Amino acid sequence: MIVAGIDLGGKNAHVVILKDDEVVAQGENATGIQKAVAAETVYDETLNKAGFNRKDVKRVVATGSAGKRVAFADGVIPDAAADARGVNRLFPSARTVIDVGAEEGRAIKISPEGKVLDFAINEKCAAGTGTFVEAMARALEISVEEMATISLKSNSSIPMNAQCAVFGESEVVSLIHQKVEKQDIAKAVHDAIAGRIASVARIIGLEKDVVVIGGMAKNNGFIDSLKKETHLDVIVPPDPDFVGALGAAVAAASGVLQEQVEAKVVELETVEEGQAS
Amino acid sequence: MAEGTSNEYWRWPEGKWTNPDIDWKKGTIIAAGVDVGSVSSQVVVVVDGELYSFGNTRTGYDSPDSARKAMHIALEETGLTVNNIDYCIGTGYGRVNVPMAQRTITEIACHARGANFMYGPEVRTVMDMGGQDCKAINCDEKGKVLNFMMNDKCAAGTGRGMEVFADLIRVPVWEIGPRSFQIEKEPPMISSTCVVFAKSEVVGLLEQGVPENDIMAAYCAAMAHRIMELLNRLGVHEKFVITGGIAKNEGVVKRLEKELGIKTAEKKWHKPEYKNYPFDTQIAGAAGAALFAEAMVSKGKAKSVRKA
C-alpha cells in the first residue's frame, strides 16, 4: 500500500511517501505565495522520484498551517497530531515534542501510542519562531546556517533585552556598533529564542524523552541553547523538518483522515501595569 | 516636506518653533525639558512657565548627541544658550544620557504633566504613542499620574510598527493617515498583531492586488485596535488625548475613536493666548519635563544652575 503525507507550512512544503510502512521518497520546496501550487509541484516531483504516479497512491493526508489548501488530500490533520504521530514513529520513547517552524513554536505532550495529550502553541508573536532568527541573521548580514555554526564557538552569554523581533533587529545592529563579536551576538539570539520556546514548553511540562523537530531543529546553535535552557538532552531526528509530513503519511497508512486536538494558545505578555509613585 | 533621501519612507518631518511674543532676556526662570525617546528627541524651553521654544528631531545612535541636537534646534537663532538655562530635566528612554540635565523624571509623569499643560486640566486619560512603546495613563486635574498601562516589549501599536509598514509599502509615513480614508469601503483589519507577521500579511495582500490605500486602512485599523485593547485594560476617561507621533496619524486616531466610542480632544492649546502657536503632539513629554524644571526652581526645591 502506498500512502503520502504532505506538510504545507508557512515557508516550505514537505512530502513523505510510504510504501508498506517504509519511507520510499521525500521531497521539499519553498511554498512562496502560491501555496496550493507549490503543494502540487512537490507532490508530483516526490512521486516521480519514487517511480509512482498519483493513481498508485491509496490515501493522502495533509497537515501544516496551509494543510487545508492541499486540494488532492483525502484528509487533513492538525500539525500537533501529525508531529505526535511522526515523532512516535521515529522515537517511541518520546513524551514531549517541540516543533519550531518559521511562523510558530509549539510543544506537545504525547502518549506512548503517539496521541496528543496536551499542547501549547505560540503563533502570534514572531519572537518565538524561526522568523525571529532569520530576521536577526539578516541584521548580522550572515546566513542562518552560518549563524548556527559561529554561535557554537561563543563562550559568552550576553542577554538580549528585546523580546520583539522588530526591536531585536535594532538591538543586534547596536551590538554590532558596540563591536560585540558576531558569534556572541548569534549566541545571544539563540539563547533568546530557546528561552521563549522553553517557556511555551513549560506550560505543558517537559517530560523525557524530548524530541525537537521543525526547521529550527536543524540549527545546532539553537539546539545547544535549548539544551542549556532546559537542562535536558534533547533528541533531534536526522530530517527534523520532514517529521510533520511523516506523521501525516503514518495517519494516511492507518486510514486516519481527521483528528482533533485542543491547544493552549500562548500569548507573550507585553503589558506592564504601574501606579503613581 | 520630505527630508533625507527619497527611499526613507519612515522619515517624518522634524520641526522647530520659537515664540515671537517672548523676550527671554526679560524672563526670571528659564527651564528646559529634554525628552530623548527611542525614535525622536525633543527639547522644550519655558520662560517663567510660558512656552518659549521647541525642537523635534530624530534620535541617532547616541543619546547625548541626540539631546544636544534637539537642544541646538530649540535654541537656534534665539541668542539663548545652555548657560542661560536655570534648570533642565531629562526624560524619555534615553533620559540618563542627557548631558545638560540636572535630574531625570520618567516620561509617564512628564507626558501627563505636558498633556495637562497643552490640552488643559480636564484631561483624564493620556495615550502616549511613542516610537518603541505605548502607554495609557490616567491622571488628575493637576496632570499627576494616577495609574498607567505600558507596552514596551512589542512593536505592535508603536510608532516603529508604523515606520516598518511605511517602508514596506513605500509610502511616506505622514501620507498613510490621509490615504487610509481614500477607500470605497473599510476593509477587514490586518489580522496579525505581530509586526513581523503583519508584514507577511501585507505582502500577501499586495500580491493579491489589493489597493494600497485599502491596505493602509487595514493597517491603521489594526493599530487602532491594538491601542484600544491597552486603553480598555486601563479604563479610558474623557477628556482623552493622544500624545506622541501616532497622534498625527488621523488614520489611526479616527478609527480608534470609532472603536472606543470616545473622541479625542481637539489638538488645540488650552491657553487661549496660545491659539496661534503650533501644536505638536510629540513635544508633550519635553513640555512636562520643562514645567517640572520650572516648578522646582520657582518653588525653591532646586537651585538654579544658570551660568550666564
Which descriptors would you attach to this protein?
heterodimer, A: 277 residues, alpha/beta, Nucleotidyltransferase, domain 5, 2 domains, 5-stranded mixed beta sheet, 11 strands, B: 308 residues, 6-stranded mixed beta sheet, 4-stranded mixed beta sheet, 8 helices, 10 strands, 34% helix, 19% strand, disordered N terminus
Describe the structure.
The complex is a heterodimer of chains A (277) and B (308). By secondary structure, chain A is an alpha/beta fold. Chain A has two domains: 1-91 and 238-265, 2-Layer Sandwich (Nucleotidyltransferase, domain 5), CATH 3.30.420; 92-236, 2-Layer Sandwich (Nucleotidyltransferase, domain 5), CATH 3.30.420.40. Chain A contains eight helices and eleven strands. Chain A has helices at 35-50, 79-90, 130-140, 144-151, 165-177, 182-204, 220-230, 243-253, and strands at residues 2-8, 12-19, 22-30, 59-63, 75-76, 96-100, 105-110, 116-122, 210-213, 264-265, 271-275. In chain A, the strands form two sheets. Chain A has a five-stranded mixed sheet with strand order 3-2-1-4-5. In chain A, strands 9-6-7-8-10 form a five-stranded mixed sheet, sandwiched between helices. In chain A, a hairpin with a 3-residue loop joins strand 1 (2-8) and strand 2 (12-19). In chain A, helix 3 packs parallel to helix 5 and helix 4 packs across helix 6. The model of chain A has no long low-confidence stretch (mean pLDDT 93). Chain B is an alpha/beta fold. Chain B folds into two domains: 15-121 and 271-298, Nucleotidyltransferase, domain 5; 129-260, Nucleotidyltransferase, domain 5, CATH 3.30.420.40. In chain B, the strands form two sheets. A six-stranded mixed sheet of chain B has the order 1-4-3-2-5-6. In chain B, helix 3 runs parallel beside helix 5 (195-207) and helix 6 crosses helix 7. Chain B starts with 14 loop residues before the first strand and ends in a 10-residue tail after the last helix. Classes of the chains: A alpha/beta (277), B alpha/beta (308). The A-B interface holds A 10, 33, 103, 124-127, 131-132, 135, 163-167, 174, 177, 268-276 and B 61, 108, 132, 144-155, 160-161, 164, 192-197, 200, 203-204, 207, 230, 233. Strand 11 (271-275) of chain A pairs antiparallel with strand 9 of chain B.
